[in-house]
């Protein structure tokens, strides 16, 4: 019996061994792939690969290295200058110089044995998945990598995902943004699948419906050291947008030859490749040629970093601290992605209505009398304007919260006078506070010292770091993360408002800027000020170039971690303070340095730009990018900040800048005047006319800001957001839309007499003539008066009779422009409140009206009716009617106050004489063309032009892009309506 039992036992052992061997073989075949089927809440688990074995140091053996043979797959292993084969191989990387592609790294990561390995199974959690990672036993990169990491994947909704890689043993710095929790229950219906590779560790996120790669780290190059972190991800296409702040040369990224984009806040005038004032490590990708599917990725990190675009295509993030924290947002089109992103980081604020008016500023008015003279010139030409700025020259010795008693004596009384004229005043405040004023005479410093507000020097932990900026003498830097700073800052602003009744605040130099390296005493030689790696694309030889020491002590952490958050930390206390100074008022703040989420508190201008034709174009790109970043209240300094501008350039910039959402003419110290009244009568009148168009359209623009606050929608909108399948729109960055319906195609080159722009599919109406070109690429003659504008068929724009300030324009009657599409339909809306009070949207103190139009009617529906609109609806204009109406009724009552005019369709024909008509009342030109000797068409055209005109004939012998105009449809004008917009109405015609 015992012998039989022993035989059975041995048999069980042999069977067990056979099963074990079989399991190992199967594991070697099946693993290292771990697939997560998100929709089924299942993980197909496996044991680690048999090639992974522990090392006495605590790292693991991840197997043999393999150098990628495809040059496009290379991830740079030695980004610093001076790489050699010896230095490369010391890092365990591959060496193979190549001139095949410009920028290709000679030293690049192998795949297979670098990075980390998941030594335990991926586990399912309530919110998603988690795993523990061990470092592969390979050569160290810069310094010893962390031996153990943890990864958490959270899937709180069908279109959001978070991937967080961190040190489970030691709390590292994490960006202190207040974001929605991602710890909720994992959803079953996500747009994506997630897969893990265990050795070397990689994560793959793919769109469930198409398999497109959204986030795939299998290219290698994964490093996690204390001051060097890096991870790469494949991209599904080269339709990549975003990453900032930079002065990009194109809206769509074009350079994928290992192009590095630095991100680290810096006092740096815009220039190619430079890291500028703000940091926005967010990019948006369209997933292929024939799909509108898109996604966005936020890398939530505030340390010095760079993003590299390589030809795989792929993106590599390299940062000098913190953790690897990625948020992914999916959508079925790029606009949906931005709305998803902004719903997470914070949807933009609604500016006060007056903040949508034109704004005038400069550094170096130098006296109140000079300001008054320029304002008198503006008034002489009746140029619309709402806001005047005070730059640092109004201060005494450039000290915050002071007024120059000599050159600006009487400023407070003058601001009161501006208010009486319906104008507003914005004052500048810099963060740097002078430290050498007589004790007891400068509360900003005295109170700041008493309350411990300032950033401290690491060498003297209880004493402020001393730098130098604009104030006379030296300067200290407030730590706005200090919880005591908000009240200190608010008290100063409220007290100053008692002296100077400003309406909003402009915060500048908040990167923070410093005119000396680090401090007046230099910076200690340590690992923070001289980190083992400084991203090579970041300007300056050291991280503290033009700013403060990296080891300076702040309330939360070292400045090393928080540098790029300085402007962000100042913004919220500033908007709270200016609202405290203006109780019940919305106010606004414009800031130079920004970070994700700042659009919910303020706006941004594109910095100290140069006066030149290329920056004119680049300002469109920057403005579109900041709409993606969630800061739609955006614009550049009209006519440029640096250098003397030129007449034609400045005029074209006024025509473009009239359609920035933040429309301000501002320039630097000592340069010539460039305000609209600063040249001659022609310049002033052209500026007045284009600004009058802006003021007429402000109800539409204001409604767009409501939609942005409500859903996260963009305001200045790229063409591709409305036409994502149109490949021409994917690279269009010389035109832009206001919302979905109003197209701006500004002239951006010097001395041109013709201008070509693109009209996507659908019906478009010339704003001035309501002509409807049928071609896509339209070429029109241009003069200095020309700025091509078009209304998109299918939409209704609310408008208002303009005035020279918004205070008075809001008293004028409204109108509606209904532009029918090819199916004779149109829709639109109007959001309206008092334009100035705080939280009207949040409290429901507004009216929201929806409009719909067809070929025989236009009606309104009042959706929210909690504010009494001051002015009535005076008229409607309906574009694109197929037939001339004979009768019109308003709420069933006939009216005789209507008229109609035939308009014309524009078709393309070659070889004809071209007539140019200049409508004197609107200061623009169009080209009317007809074939040689075709007198019938000539008479038809001229008989249907009802405005005064000047005719000029020019022969185009080989001009195949010229146009001929033939009758097409009717335009209906119904006037003297005097309708209360708070009450629904219906207008019919037949």
UniProtKB/TrEMBL annotation:
The keyword Disulfide bond applies. It is found in: Endomembrane system. CDD domains: GH31_MGAM_SI_GAA, GH31_N, Trefoil. InterPro entries: Gal_mutarotase_sf_dom, GH, Glyco_hydro_31_AS, Glyco_hydro_31_C, Glyco_hydro_31_N_dom, Glyco_hydro_31_TIM, Glyco_hydro_b, P_trefoil_CS. The chain crosses the membrane at residues 15-38. Pfam families: Gal_mutarotas_2, Glyco_hydro_31_2nd, Glyco_hydro_31_3rd, Trefoil. Signal peptide: none annotated. GO terms for biological process: carbohydrate metabolic process. Keywords: Disulfide bond, Glycoprotein, Glycosidase, Hydrolase, Membrane, Transmembrane, Transmembrane helix. Belongs to the glycosyl hydrolase 31 family. This is Maltase. It comes from Trichoplax adhaerens.
């Amino acid at each position: 019996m015992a012998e039989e039992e022993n035989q059975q036992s041995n048999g069980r052992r042999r069977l067990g061994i056979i099963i074990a061997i079989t399991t190992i073989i199967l594991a070697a075949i099946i693993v290292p792939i771990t697939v997560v089927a998100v929709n089924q809440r299942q993980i197909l688990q496996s044991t680690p690969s048999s090639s992974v074995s522990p090392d006495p140091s605590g790292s693991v053996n991840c197997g043999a290295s393999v150098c990628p043979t495809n040059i496009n797959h290379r991830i740079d292993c030695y980004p610093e200058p001076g790489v050699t084969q010896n230095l490369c191989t010391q890092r365990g990387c591959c060496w193979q110089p190549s001139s095949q592609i410009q920028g290709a790294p000679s030293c690049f990561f192998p795949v297979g044995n670098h990075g980390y390995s998941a030594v335990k199974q991926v586990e399912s959690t309530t919110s998603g998945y988690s795993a523990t990672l061990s470092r592969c036993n390979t050569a160290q990169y810069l310094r010893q990598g962390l031996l153990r990491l943890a990864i958490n994947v959270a899937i709180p909704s069908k279109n959001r995902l978070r991937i967080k890689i961190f040190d489970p043993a030691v709390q590292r710095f994490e960006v202190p943004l207040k974001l929605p929790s991602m710890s909720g229950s994992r959803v079953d219906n996500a747009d994506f699948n997630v897969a893990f590779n265990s050795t070397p560790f990689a994560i793959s996120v793919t769109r469930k419906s198409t398999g497109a790669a959204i986030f795939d780290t299998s290219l290698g190059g994964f490093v996690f050291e204390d001051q060097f972190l890096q991870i790469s991800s494949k991209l599904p296409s080269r339709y990549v947008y975003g990453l900032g702040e930079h002065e990009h040369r194109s809206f769509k990224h074009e350079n994928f030859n290992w192009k590095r984009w630095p991100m680290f806040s810096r006092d740096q005038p815009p220039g190619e490749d430079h890291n500028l004032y703000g940091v926005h490590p967010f990019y948006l990708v369209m997933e292929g040629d024939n799909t509108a599917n898109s996604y966005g990725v936020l890398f939530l990190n505030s340390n010095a970093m760079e993003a590299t675009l390589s030809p795989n295509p792929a993106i590599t993030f390299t940062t000098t601290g913190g953790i690897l924290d990625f948020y992914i947002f999916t959508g079925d089109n790029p606009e949906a992605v931005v709305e998803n992103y902004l719903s997470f980081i914070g949807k933009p604020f609604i500016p006060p209505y007056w903040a949508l008016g034109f704004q005038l500023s400069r550094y170096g008015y130098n006296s109140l009398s000079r300001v008054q003279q320029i304002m008198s010139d503006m008034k002489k030409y009746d140029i619309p304007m709402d806001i005047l700025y005070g730059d640092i020259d109004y201060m005494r010795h450039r000290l915050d919260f002071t007024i120059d008693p000599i050159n600006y004596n009487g400023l407070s009384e003058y601001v009161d006078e501006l208010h009486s004229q319906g104008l507003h005043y914005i004052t500048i405040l810099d963060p740097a506070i002078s430290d050498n004023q007589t004790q007891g005479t400068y509360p900003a410093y005295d109170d700041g010292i008493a309350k411990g507000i300032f950033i401290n020097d690491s060498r003297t932990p209880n004493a402020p770091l001393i730098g130098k900026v604009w104030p006379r003498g030296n300067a200290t830097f407030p730590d706005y993360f200090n919880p005591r700073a908000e009240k200190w800052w608010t008290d100063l602003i409220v007290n100053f408002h008692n002296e100077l009744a400003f309406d909003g605040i402009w915060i500048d130099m908040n990167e923070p800027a410093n005119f000396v390296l680090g401090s007046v005493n230099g910076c200690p030689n340590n690992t923070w000020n001289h980190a083992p790696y400084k991203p090579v694309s970041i300007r300056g030889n050291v991280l503290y170039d033009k700013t403060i020491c990296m080891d300076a002590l702040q309330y939360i952490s070292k400045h090393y971690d928080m540098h790029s958050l300085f402007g962000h930390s100042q913004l919220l206390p500033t908007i709270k303070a200016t609202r405290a100074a203006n109780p019940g008022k919305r106010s606004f703040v414009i800031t130079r340095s920004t970070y994700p989420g700042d659009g919910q508190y303020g706006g941004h201008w594109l910095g100290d730009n140069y006066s030149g034709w290329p920056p004119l174009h680049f300002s469109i790109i920057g403005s579109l990018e900041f709409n993606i970043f969630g800061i739609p209240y955006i614009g550049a300094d009209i006519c440029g900040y640096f250098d003397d501008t030129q007449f034609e350039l400045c005029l074209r910039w006024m025509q473009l800048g009239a359609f920035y959402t933040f429309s301000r003419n501002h320039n630097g110290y000592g340069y010539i005047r460039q305000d609209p009244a600063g040249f001659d009568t022609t310049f002033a009148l052209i500026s007045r006319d284009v600004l009058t168009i802006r003021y007429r359209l402000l109800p539409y623009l204001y409604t767009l800001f409501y939609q942005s606050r409500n859903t996260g929608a963009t305001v200045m909108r790229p063409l591709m957001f409305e036409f994502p399948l149109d490949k021409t729109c994917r690279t269009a960055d010389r035109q832009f839309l206001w919302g979905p319906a109003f197209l701006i195609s500004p002239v951006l080159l010097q001395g041109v007499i013709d201008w070509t722009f693109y009209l996507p599919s659908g019906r478009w109406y010339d704003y001035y003539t309501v002509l409807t070109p049928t071609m896509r690429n339209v070429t029109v003659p241009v003069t200095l008066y020309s700025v091509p504008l078009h209304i998109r068929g299918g939409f209704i724009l609310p408008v208002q009779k303009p005035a020279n300030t918004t205070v008075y324009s809001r008293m004028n009657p409204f109108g509606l422009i209904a532009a029918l599409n090819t199916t004779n339909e149109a829709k639109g809306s109007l959001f309206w409140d008092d334009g100035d009070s705080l939280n009207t949207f949040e409290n429901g103190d507004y009216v929201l009206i929806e409009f719909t139009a067809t070929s025989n009617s236009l009606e309104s529906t009042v959706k929210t009716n909690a504010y009494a609109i001051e002015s009535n609806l005076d008229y409607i204009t309906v574009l694109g009617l197929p037939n001339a109406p004979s009768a019109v009724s308003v709420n069933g009552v006939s009216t005789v106050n209507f008229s109609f005019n035939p308009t014309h369709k524009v078709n393309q024909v070659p070889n004809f004489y071209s007539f140019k008509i200049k409508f004197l009342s609107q200061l623009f030109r169009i080209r009317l063309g007809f074939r040689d000797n075709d007198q019938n068409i000539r008479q038809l055209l001229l008989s249907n032009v009802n405005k005064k005109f000047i005719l000029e004939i020019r022969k185009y012998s080989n001009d195949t892009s010229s146009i001929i105009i033939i009758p097409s449809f009717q335009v209906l004008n119904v006037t003297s309506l005097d309708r209360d917009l708070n009450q629904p109405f219906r207008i019919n015609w037949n």
